[in-house]
Amino acid sequence: MLSTIPNWHVTAHKRKVSSGVESQCTIMNKKGHVLNAVLLSIGLGYLLEPAGDETTLFTIVAIGIPVTLGALFPDVDTAFGKHRKTLHNLPILGLFVAFPIVFDNLEYVWIGVLTHYVLDIAGSKRGIALFYPVWKKEFGLPFGVAVSSNRSTLMTVIVTAAELVVAGLIIYEVPLLAIDLARQSIGF
Questions:
Q1: Which residues is 124 bridged to in the sheet?
Q2: What is the C-alpha separation between 14 and 26, in angstroms, rounded?
Q3: Which of the residue ranges 13-22, 30-39, 100-109 has the most confident prediction, judged by mean pLDDT?
Q4: Is pLDDT above 60 for 126?
């Protein structure tokens, strides 16, 4: 199973953990981000196209591939720079949000990058350096678990469920609030 893991990912963790935990940490980290991206894509597909037909399936695929690629991208910083700093910060996320606006492609990759950040902040103990390179402090929430924990998959599912609740509110509630505010501003 270790042969399927890119060398850059294994090398990054050799410095930080003992060899007994090394392979498990590496596998769990990649597995968690892929699981999060796939579950999030399925949930978003149903939120956007709830019919459950071929349109829903097409939406899941159209969202799923770029979201999964985006979810894996931040860990490229294990090959260079500083892991959870170099590609785990708000300026990088801003670039991925701007990319489809400027170049008219890679529309959903930013969602994958964002969900990677959310999982590293809420699901793990360590957190990420959101304001790197200006500020090197890593931010995380107190209820995260170690990447090597047997509870990391459960934490991934919990974080994904919370992300889907937020996405559902944004998709269904925010437009209604905007309509109500617009009506109130013109006197309806």
A1: 145
A2: 10
A3: 30-39
A4: yes
What pLDDT, on the 0 to 100 scale, is given for residue 51?
A: 95
CA 14 distance to own-chain centroid:
24
DSSP 97-109: HHHHHHHS--TTH
Would you give the DSSP letter of residue 124?
B
d(CA 93, CA 108) in angstroms, rounded, equals: 12
Is 80 in a helix, a strand, or coil?
coil
Task: Please state, as a whole number, how many other Cβ atoms lie within 10 Å of the Cβ of residue 76.
Answer: 15
Q: Where are the alpha helices (DSSP H) in 1-128?
A: 7-14, 19-48, 54-72, 90-103, 109-118
- CA torsion, points 78, 124, 63, 24, in degrees to nearest 10? 60
Q: Which residue has the tokens 């498990």?
A: 24
| DSSP assignments along 118-178, one per residue | HIIIIIBSS-B-TTTTT----B--TT-B-TTSTTHHHHHHHHHHHHHHHHHIIIIIHHHHH
Closest by Cα among 72, 55, 81 to 117: 72
**In the predicted model, what is the mean pLDDT of residues 116-122?**
93
Structural domain tally of the chain?
1
81: CB partners within 8 A, 6+ apart: 87
Residue 170, domain extent: 2-186
